[in-house]
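Slide 14.
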Amino acid sequence: MKWLVSTFLLLFNTLIVPKVGTVPPPVPEPVAEPPSIAEPAPALESDPDKPANTKLYVLMYHHFVPEGVGCNTWMVTNTRLREDLEWLASHGYATVLPSQLASGEPLPERAVMLTFDDGYDSGYTLAYPLLQEFNARAVISVIVSYVDDPDRDYLTWEMCREMERSGLIEIGSHTYACHEGETGITRRKSETREDYESRVFPDLQTSIDLIRDNLGHDPLFFAYPNGKTEAWARDFIQEHFSVTVTTRHGAWDTAKGLYGMRRCNVSMDVPVWDILPE
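Slide 15: predicted structure.
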């Protein structure tokens, strides 16, 4: 019996009790489990019972001037444009471009399209910085014969290229030179159809060709000069453009198509909050 006890104590001291001055073996660190990859959140399903929005407000601007300069019906100050953009953003309106309409992209619930007619250089110097600040989009319909004209305060092709590269601006046609005078592209008194087509169609084609040559694409958007449509030009215009606008006042239902859309003129006397529902 004493022999068994002695043997047990000898084994215990040898195997279990560490010797003085020795370091116990390190305890291995626990191996961390690899992080689990979270499952992506399920995509929100659209409500199939909710009809798609087809109401679009097309807002019409022309020329922008610094605060303190007098304005006519077709002008607004840069301060007013800022207020308009702030109001749109705070009331949940989203700006859309002609290319989005032409591609059939669904409209946001509160959709507006900002249109700048004629192509004044104030669209670049005063409006474009504000559009960048608010991440708002606009289409500028240029009178193409005025572009790069050093004797006029209008856009240059380089300005147009820079703005289009931002993705915020698209350039459309407002004719090459037919905007001059009150006739626009409407037929003149006693003008034959042959004379009309030889006067208007080359002008429209020149505007298309120059936009393509300088910006690398055909324009999708056409703004009728003085807002006046013409039956003799309808087929030509619909063959070459995807979206056209007039100056008839009111909202537009895109279910009716994208030609001859109504617009609402914005002025110092008529800000956007007098046009759009809150």
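Speaker note: The longest strand covers residues 111-118.
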